[in-house]
Task: structure prediction
Amino acid sequence: MTDPTPEQTPERPRALTADEEKARKRRNVAIFWSLIGFILLIFLVTIQRLASNISAGG
Result:
């Protein structure tokens, strides 16, 4: 097997700066809370629909 040419070898990612690390953490926290909110919304809508079906006799 031959050694890969420089065009074929992937570059290593550079280290993030402190500001980039903080920005990534803020984005991750925002995504986390958005997902929690979405899950809560789906849960509440499901509970409301189940309650309305039960009260309607279905």
Remarks:
- The chain is about 65% helix and 0% strand.
- The CA atoms of residues 10 and 43 lie 44 Å apart.
- The mean pLDDT is 90.
- The first helix runs from residue 18 to 55.
